[in-house]
Every structure is written in C-alpha cells, then in structure tokens.
From TrEMBL:
Organism: Candidimonas humi
Family to which the UniProt record says this protein belongs: Belongs to the aconitase/IPM isomerase family.
Domain Aconitase/3-isopropylmalate dehydratase large subunit alpha/beta/alpha residue range list: 68-565
Cofactor(s) listed in the protein's UniProt record: [4Fe-4S] cluster
Entry protein name: Aconitate hydratase
Gene name of the encoded protein: acnA
Enzyme Commission numbers on file: 4.2.1.3
Amino acid sequence: MISSLSFRDRELRYADIAALARAHGRDIAAFPYVIRVLLENLCRHRAWGAAVADTEIQALMNWRESAGTDLSLRVARVILPDSSGLPVLQDLAALRDAVARHGGDPSAVDSHIPVDLIVDHSLQVDNWARPDAVARNLHREYERNAERYRFLKWAQQAFRGVRVFPPGTGIIHQVNLEYVADVVASTQREDGPWAYPDFVIGGDSHTPMVNSLGVLGWGVGGIDAEASMLGKAYTFPVPEVVGVRLSGRIQAPALTTDAALLITQLLRKAGVTGCMVEFFGPAVAHLAVAERATIANMAPEYGATCGFFPVDGQTLDYLSLTGRPQERIELVQAYCRANSLYRGADDVQPQYTRVVDIDLSQAMPSMAGPSRPQDRLPVDTIATDFHSRLYRPRAKGGFAADADGAPGSANSGSAGIAQSDAGQLQHGSVVLAAITSCTNTSNPYVMLAAGLLARKAVERGLHSAAWVKTSLAPGSRAVTRYLDEAGLSPALQALGFHTIGYGCTTCGGKSGPLDPAVADEIERRGLVVAAALSGNRNFEGRIHKMIRANYIGSPPMVVAYALAGRIDIDFEREPLGTDAAGQPVYLRELWPATSEIEALLPLAQQRALFQAVYDPDNFDAEMWQTLQAPTGLCFPWDPDSHYLVEPPFFHGTPDGKALARLATDLREARVLAAFGDSLTTDHISPGGEIPAETPAGQYLLDAGIAPRDFNSYVARRCNFEVMTRATFANIRIKNSLLPETEGGYTRHFPDGEQMTIFDAALAYRREGHGTIILAGKEYGTGSSRDWAAKGSQLLGVRAVLAESFERIHRANLVGLGVLPLAFLPGQGWRQLGLTGSETFSFERIEQAVEGDGQVQVRARRDDGTTVDFLAVPQVLTEAERRLMADGGIPQSVLRGFIGEPARAGAHDSSIPDDRDPT
C-alpha cells in the first residue's frame, strides 16, 4: 500500500500502514507504535523488491498471537562506538581478504547502508582535577590508540557510507540524540523520492536511548551489525509489546534519574526481558526528550529490547532546540502525521500484551547498587544496606570483609595525597565520584542541578574529601558550554569536577588509576571502598578493580558523596561538613530548588549552541586530521602488531555442516566453568584494565609490552589473542567450580587441578573434549559485547546451558555457532544436583535445533551414575537455525561471497542521498 505526501513542492512516496491495516480488516490506531514501525519496514521493502512473505505481514497484523514469528527487517542505518565498531570493520577487512583468497572480488564486501562510528570508548581518566585534563587525556588517548585510529581512517576511505566522528566529539548515544538521528529519513529511488522512519541498530546496548526521540532502535552484537551492513536481512521475532503507563509527576527533591531507577526496578520485577516497552499515559506529555532519554537509556537495565516514546510535540521541540534544519523538522511532522506515527494528545490508546502502571510521584532520591542497576536504594537506606553486606559472605551478596582489618592511622599512606588523608580511609569510603555517561549528561536539568549544588557547597566553604577521585566526562561538548554560560563550571572545578574529556569513561570501566596512596591503603588494609557515578552500569569489577561497592545515581548525588567522602552517611542526620563559622552544613540546605534549576534551563536549550558544537569545522580534530593512515581496498596487516591482528573467523571453507560437527564435539564434553544467576557480559569479557597477572597480561608481557602500555581490554579488542585470554577473566567473576576464589580460574577434570580458565580450555582441546558452560538465570546481561560470544567460541565452548538468557548475548552466541540451551522450567544445574565435574553427552542436537523436540542430555559422574534431563535450544527463528547450520554469521556471509547460496536473504539497499557529511 503506497501513498504519496505533498511536501515542499514535491511528492514523497511512503508505505501507508493505515491503508495496509484497513486492507486486512484492522484499525492502525489499535497497534502499538513500535509494531507500526515494523509494519512499515516490511511493507516498504516489499515494495522495493525485497523478499517479504505474506505470512510476515499477517504475523504483524496479529502480533499478539504471533510472538516469535520471523520478520525480515532492513535497518536504515547502523551506529557503532569504537569499542565494537573497530572489530566490526576489522572483520570486514578480514572478510575481504578471505574472499580474495577464494578467488572472489574483495570490493564486493562493502557497506550497503549508512554507518556512523563515534570514537568514544577509548578515553581514560588518566588526568583529573586539573584545568588541562581534557588536553592531556586526549593526547594520551592518541598516544595509546594511534594504530587503531589509523585503521579507522583507512576504513573510512575503504568502505562507502562509513562516517567517523573523531575522539573528543562525545558519547555515541548523546551524539546520536543531539545530531545524527533524523527521525524520518528520505532517499531518491527510480520511482521518485521516498520518506520512511529512521530505524537503527547499534553496537552498544544503550542504543535505545534514541527511542526517546521516536526513533526505533536497539543494541545488537557486532556480528549482527556486520550482517546488516553487508545487506543481509536482520531477522527479528515478532515481539511482545508491554505498555508502561506513566502517571504523576516527579516531585522535588527527586530528579529524572530517580524516576529512571524506579522504572528500572519495577520493570525488572515485572519481567520485560526481551520485550519491547512502549511508554504512554498522562505523564508522558510532560516529559521532555532529555528526560525521556534517561529512561529509554536504561532499557538494557530493565531487560527490554527498547523503551519507546512515539514522535510527538516534544520530539519536534527537541529537534528544533538541537539545531536540526527546519526542513527536517517539517518533514518529521508531516510524514509522521500522514503515516499514523505521530502521537497526539487525544489519540486512542493502542492495545498492548499487558500494561504496567508506574506513578512517577513515587520516585525519591535514590542510588542503585552496590553491583546491579536494578537494585534501587533510597538514599536513607544505603548506610544500613552497606553495613549489612560488609562481613556477609560473597555467596550471599556480601563483601566478605576481614573483621580484623586494621584501622587507619595518621602514619599510613604513601606518595600522593597527604598521609593523614589516606589514613582516614575506612570501609565505605568513597574513593571515586564521577559525573559521567550519556544516561545523565544528556539531561541538562540534572547537570544544572549538580552545578548549583556545587556552587552552594563552595559558598559554604565545603570541599570534596581529599581521597576522592573526582571527574566530569560529559557525553557532549554542549554540556561544557551551557555550564560555562550558567557560571557553574568554577564551582564544579573547585570541588575537583573538572571536565576530563568527552567519552564513555568511568561507566565503561575506563576510570583510570586511583591515587597511589589511596590504592596502597585499600590493598594494605583490605578495605571495601565505594564509587558513586551517574552512569547506568555498576557490575562487579567494571568500574575499578579495587572498588567493591559501586552506586549509580544522579549527578548532584555524585557531588554530595564526593563532599561526604563515604557511602554510609545518613544525609538527614549527618552534615556534609562545617562552614567557616563552624556550623554544620546539611545536604538539604544545598539541594537546589526547582525554580533555581528552571531559571538556568534556557541556557542549555539554545539552538545556536548545538549548531556550533556540531559544526564539523569546529570538531576538535587537529590530531585526527594529521594522523597518517594507509589507503586502498585491502588493509595492510602488520605482522608485528599487537592491536590489529587478522581475526580467525573467516578461515577455512564453509560447508554448511557445522551442526553435525557440533553434535560430535558434544559427545564427551567437559564443564569449563559454572556460574550462578545474572552473569554479565562484563564478567565474560571485561572492558577495563588488563592486570599483569592475568593470561592476557602475561601475553602482552611476553610480547615485550610494558604494563603502562597495556591499554584496556576495550582497546585490545582487535587482537583475538588478548581477547581469548580475557574471556571469563574478570577479576570479580565467581566460578562455582572454585567457590572460594574470585577471578578467571577453574578446575580441570578429572584431576581437579586448579588453573586459569584459558589454560583449562587449552588442556581440554588437547585432550579432545568440547567444553560447555553451566549457568543460572539471566545469563549474559549487560553490554552488547560480541567478544563475550567470540571469546567463548575461541576458547572451545560449544554450548551454554542456562536457566535463561538475555536477548543480545543469546543472539551473539548463535551468531558465533555456540549453542544456547535452556533447562526446562524449574530445573537448573544446581537443582539437578550437578557439580560441574561430570562428563556431558548431548543427543538429538541437529533435530532439536531444526525445531523437532528437545536435546537429550546425560551427565555422567566419576562413579558411573548419571543424571538425564532435557534442554531446549534457544535458537528462535528459521534464520538462526540456518546460521547454526553454517557455524555462525562469519561463515554464512563468507559462503555467500564465494559462490555458495547465501543462507540469509540479502537485499539491495542504498545510502540516502541527503546524508550530511561530517
């Protein structure tokens, strides 16, 4: 059903979803907006000649009864951070080489859709609390990553449609929100110009932040991004759509962050994992896009595929204030109104699978922690909760602190901060306070609140505790500009919150070093210390290897904890400090009033400000422009490089018989490691510091690389040797085969010898055993980290047996040919009495993956007794079944390029002709 729209003296063609619904006897008003976007995608691409079956259209017409049915979607664009984007482009470079080796045309390996890559995940907080921190950190970033950045410059000229935003631009999701996202795209085709919804997948799990703008998008693994770039259909099952009715208003002193933490907690409890969440209700109209962004950003934390806010008047206002061209704003309004994608105040409420009611007036000042973002704690309960965990065993959610730990003394400490200051450290001391992450720095309301609190604190003579490492890492340079204009930057700097750069730092594990005196004191006395940050992730071992308790909250709460210097303060009864007159100063005295924040808000909503920030001529890119890089079609690999090593995923000749090999490998399998619930991708593939004593650290040392130059795991993701050794190597991972040990260690069976997981994987490979992972619920929560699947595959893991999986990691495992298997409801490896020492055999794998029944599993103990049970393959679509047969996406796409029939349908897409260059 194709219609046309008159727009600025031209006729724009579009896929008319209301007409399509009527033709099927449906009313489009009853459809959730996310379903409408998916329906438009199928309808338009069928009109463009893609293979879209009638059954797919029919499945969306009956979406509530068709959950799980395959949809062949085509995304409008891909957006990537450098952390996942570099491996994506590296894989494509390796694919070109593989195609050439097989006698094919390497130029055929190219991007079919626009790709934006924002270099934002390599910045580390090496310098802080100093005026020149931005310049010094940027210089150090280039010093560490010049080789990686030269590769990016090569890729920008080698692949069409790839646009790179250089270091110092901002964080991917905030840049996407403020500049990149068009909301409605347009392109010229043979039959005329077309308009259609912006629809994006991103190589970072927080891609749903752009849902706040009415853009449908979510995070995927890099391997899914590669397939979409190469013109493959992105197969996605018909989702369950949960409506979340927001009512009430956020009441001071609560802020948007507190509402987002409330929503995260309640939706996790409601069980929306893998669902699409769509917000509606009386409160939505009053939430500005910047507030919606904080809520939508947390979609991975509440487990949803997306947290969607349809296009409405707030969308148009935001597009205007962030400097989008007037023609674009008019197009968004005209197209969305014409095609039933604009939500009006009086529109009929769509039908949802179920509805969750949330009253925003119930939000209160909170922090989430100490290790999961859904574990919201009102601030007046944090001290009690912290102390209740202090001496509790780790297996019961505690910190297992030494009850006989030495108290501080004025004589302790070393070089760095004053010895007397280091000696004041205790359990619960806050040693890191970071205003960081696009989650909150995209919201000027909470950033201005932080600045106002800082100004009041400075006026009363307060200062941050000497042992706290403070930093401010905005997701956009616009933040610095409006803080400067509001006159709040001096106060933040007086408390140590100097801007240190523009990138994903502390929230992503790039917090940098602590002061040596602080680090020595923590280690010497076995202290359980804390971090306060305005991010979205606080998993164990993610923020800093020495910090066991990590709490996320609003930017002003970060400032408050920096002033207090400890996490176990009762703000109501205990002062933050004393003023010059010796009078106690309480947090309630410093907390800014709503009227104070709103008075400054217009300074952050200036169209000219955003136009200046995103003027390509104003990008701070001198070092980028002068960076020398190779050119040409194929990348010249350096055999001596330890950053860019050709990956092994395209070696060999694909034959479509991977399932048969998988079945053979799993006949006498051993357990490489066993885990409890909520194992995150950070646990599986850490992103921060590389400790020298780990297998990855030893590899780099053996290569002659000094620890100072290790960089982070994120920066070494293009070296599969490092990343394989990094898999399951998080310093806080808890393998149940060694319940009293933390870190990447396991037992090798049958001898029971303790060794690193990497060494055990090598041993099992030599002995001819495939390996498996045992896990509990929510396996693979967290970042869309494809190296968690890639590393597992390279270690020799052939299957993961878990009680349940998070969406992205499950798909990533399939994309690498690793079989995800679920225990039957009510069962699990612990419930079945398994220990992980058994030998496992799997029968009927090929039949079960193809949809015929379940896998039969037998676990044989050393004494000859067995445990027999069934497991269900978590291979959810026909396209995924084909991928498992091919051995994953890399082998599938290689098979297509060297002349074998492609196993997933390709499509002919084009890069829109109105895409602005940087």
